[in-house]
Design brief:
about 375 residues, alpha/beta, four-stranded mixed β-sheet, 12 strands
Length: about 375
């Protein structure tokens, strides 16, 4: 019956090959590979597609977080973020000079819990950085209120949420800083590392342009302490080819997620994760009893799975934090990501669900 990987980029590349090949030919003819026309065009197109005014391309999603915090003046103190996220969320905070501190998650949605976050704000807290995990927007309205109450900046980690909306509005409507990753498996990815920032503030955009280029202002002088973090022209050729398909790809992800919902809702041993409105379904994650045995069974049937993420950040040696975050600690023992990508066949999704039901004794 063939294998079903957890993610597969080959169909995506085939579907867009005419456009990215044309972009590459244009780039090679121009032979300007850093801070050129492809990047400038992509920045305009990306901002427009996601409902923001401005975007700035940077080297990766980690750098996007770092630069947002640096521009907000957060180079010390603590930044509160989710315990359930990729380690690069914490790495970006550390790179800015601040220290990551972690809040627990809502056990139903697996998103950072605003009430738990509120209980952890102290005089050392310099910023809030909620994560839109798995493509689902977290409770942004609550985080906006928290940030305003404590007069601290709100940086959104939207590395997995390209095109997500909250309350019908684009993410950029809720804070000055929205950080994205273009890692290849993201809803909008390139073929290497890449990242971007969306902001609705022109002065902020202008500062980012200087920060990402070593503090230079179109010359060879470092006017401020910047970094070397530029999204290169080659990756922009792919991103510009992929971007027009983003909405369609996100819609397909939603259809696959709906199939999993339908097929697994009554399955014993499986608990569905509650998805928030406006999700772009970056990952389809379930909570599963005997998770490791289930993964082994699926692998034997040629079905790939993954765990996003196996250890909560407060238990990583690099970010060790005292105290327990019970919901995150329990979730990482149960979560498993099922196959989900833009060109996954609906019949394949039903096959995955059928094998899961069989594992738990339900046909």
């Amino acid at each position: 019956m063939g294998t079903i990987p957890q993610t597969n980029l080959r169909p995506l590349l085939r579907a867009t090959s005419r456009d990215w090949r044309a972009n590459l030919r244009r780039l090679f003819k121009r032979s300007h590979f850093i801070l050129g026309e492809e990047l400038r065009a992509f920045e305009v197109e990306f901002a427009a597609a996601l409902g923001g005014k401005f975007s700035v391309g940077v080297a990766n999603g980690t750098a996007a977080i770092e630069l947002c915090l640096r521009d907000a003046g957060v180079t010390s103190g603590e930044v509160l973020t989710s315990a359930l996220t990729a380690p690069f969320s914490g790495v970006g905070i550390r790179a800015s000079g601040a220290t990551p501190k972690f809040a627990d998650i809502d056990p139903e949605t697996l998103q950072i819990d605003a009430r738990d976050t509120a209980s952890r704000i102290t005089s050392k807290t310099r910023a809030l950085m909620p994560v839109h995990l798995y493509g689902q927007p977290c409770a942004l309205d609550q985080f906006v209120k928290l940030a305003r109450k404590h007069k601290i900046p709100l940086i959104q980690d939207a590395a997995q949420a390209h095109g997500a909306r909250f309350d019908g509005k684009p993410l950029a409507a809720f804070s000055r800083y929205v950080a994205y990753s273009f890692y290849p498996t993201k809803n909008l990815g390139c073929l290497g590392d890449g990242g971007g920032i969306i902001t609705d503030n022109a002065a902020t955009r202008d500062r980012f342009l200087v920060l990402r280029d070593g503090g230079r202002q179109g010359d060879q002088i470092a006017h401020s302490f910047g970094v070397n973090s530029r999204l290169d022209e080659l990756q922009c050729c792919f991103l510009r080819a992929f971007l027009p398909h983003l909405n369609g790809w996100n819609a397909h992800r939603g259809r696959i997620a709906a199939i999993y919902d339908e097929e697994l809702r009554e399955c014993p041993g499986v608990k569905l994760v509650k998805r928030t409105e406006g999700s772009v379904h970056h990952l389809y994650v379930i909570r599963a009893e005997r998770r490791n045995a289930l993964r082994e069974c699926l692998a034997a049937q040629g079905i790939g799975t993954a765990i996003h993420y196996p250890v909560p950040l407060h238990q990583h040696p690099a970010f060790a934090q005292k105290g327990s975050l019970p919901h995150a600690e329990q979730a990482v023992k149960e979560i498993v990501s099922l196959p989900l990508w833009p060109y996954l066949k609906e019949s394949s999704a039903r096959r995955v669900a059928r094998q899961i039901r069989r594992f738990y004794g339900r046909k």
